[in-house]
Structures are given as C-alpha cells and as structure tokens.
Amino acid sequence: VFDDCAGNEGVEFEVSNPDFLIDDNLNLVARRDVIDSGDVMFVHGVNVHVDDMAQVTIMGAPSRSPQTLREILGLSDMMPYRSKRSLLVPPMFVPENQRAPFPRLIGKVISSDMKEDHIFRLTGRGADQDPKGVFSINRLTGEVAVSRALDREAIAYYHLQVSTTDLSGKLVEGPVDLDVSVIDQNDNRPVFKEPRYSGEVLEGSPT
C-alpha cells in the first residue's frame, strides 16, 4: 500500500511494469496472474510537493505442477526448449537537477547465472560514449549509479546496454537493453512580458 503523507494528497503514481497499477485505494495490484518471481519494477509518485521512487521486487513464485505438458507427453528429451534469460535489467528513472553527493545509486542489474570470474559491463551513450561517464555499473554487484546532475531539456532518455563477460573480456550474457528516463522537474521560472499589469475587482465580490 502506498499511503499519502499529510499534505501530499493527490499523488499520481506511475508503475514501470505495465502488468501492475496503483488503484484508487493506493494499493499496488496486478492486472494478471503473477507467475514469475525476482522481477524488479519501480513505482514513481509525484505531485506539487513530492517526487519519489520506490523499487519493488516480486517474491515467492507459486509452486509449479510436478509435471509439465512436455513431460506428460513424453517430449522432454525429444524437443529442445529455450531457457529463461538470466540477466534481468529493469528500467531506471533519474530526477533531473539532483544535488550532490554523487554518485547516486539508481538501480541494480541482476544475473541469476553470475560466476565469480564474471563481471558486469555497461556500454552506450552516457557510459562509454559521449556524454561519457554519466552512468557506471559496479562490475561485481551490478549496481548502476549516476555520476552527476542531469538536464531533461538536454537529454530526456538514455539507451544503454548491459552485458556480462569473463575476466578476459569474452561475452557471457547479453547485451540487454537498459533504459534510463530523466524525470522532469519544474525548473523553468515564469516570464512576465510586461513590466506592469492592472486589473479590477468589484467590491463585495464573492469568494
């Protein structure tokens, strides 16, 4: 449940996973049956007083049937199947005009098949391409960080790639797309074109 604090009524929520939403009672609810665990999503809440982000992890997948259709039909050893991708890269969000200190953690990449001699690698615009060094990834933990304040009016969206390699640089997993969206802030001051404005209000006018 995402509960408004006093003075923060009317918060609008955006969920990064389209299979979930925040209902009128401020509950995070699923639009479909939840069959996967370990997926990470983000809930963005914003109004005139607040702009904040929550990270949500889906835990505890329901137990599966002891027999799949493939096993019932005796096809387990006859037909190859595609294994589930082990590199999980959730979309990430960064408010513009953040203040120091930097770097700031913005999310985490998860690999279910990570070995001790494997490392994470981040590439693309904002990493190893201009503007270089905006984003970095911890080679061992997969934590992604932003190194400086961003300007949405300059760049509103970053499209990067994450992969894992062994210590020699040989590709192990990926690359998988990592999308980073810059959240807009009301940082444009109002501009008055005239030096003076005049108006009239009738005496006794209702509130």
TrEMBL record:
Gene3D superfamilies: Cadherins
Chief location: membrane
Source organism superkingdom: Eukaryota
SMART domains reported in the protein's UniProt record: CA
Domain Cadherin: 94-192
Keywords: Calcium, Cell adhesion, Cell membrane, Cleavage on pair of basic residues, Cytoplasm, Glycoprotein, GPI-anchor, Lipoprotein, Membrane, Metal-binding, Repeat, Signal
Pfam families reported for this sequence: Cadherin, Cadherin_pro
Membrane topology reported for the UniProt record: Lipid-anchor; GPI-anchor
Record localization: Cell membrane; Cytoplasm
Stored PANTHER family: CADHERIN-13, CADHERIN-23
Function comment: Cadherins are calcium-dependent cell adhesion proteins. They preferentially interact with themselves in a homophilic manner in connecting cells; cadherins may thus contribute to the sorting of heterogeneous cell types. May act as a negative regulator of neural cell growth.
Subunit structure and binding partners: By contrast to classical cadherins, homodimerization in trans is not mediated by cadherin EC1 domain strand-swapping, but instead through a homophilic adhesive interface which joins two elongated EC1-EC2 domains through a region near their Ca2+-binding sites to form a tetrahedral, X-like shape.
Stated name of the protein: Cadherin-13
Organism placement in taxonomy: Eukaryota, Metazoa, Chordata, Craniata, Vertebrata
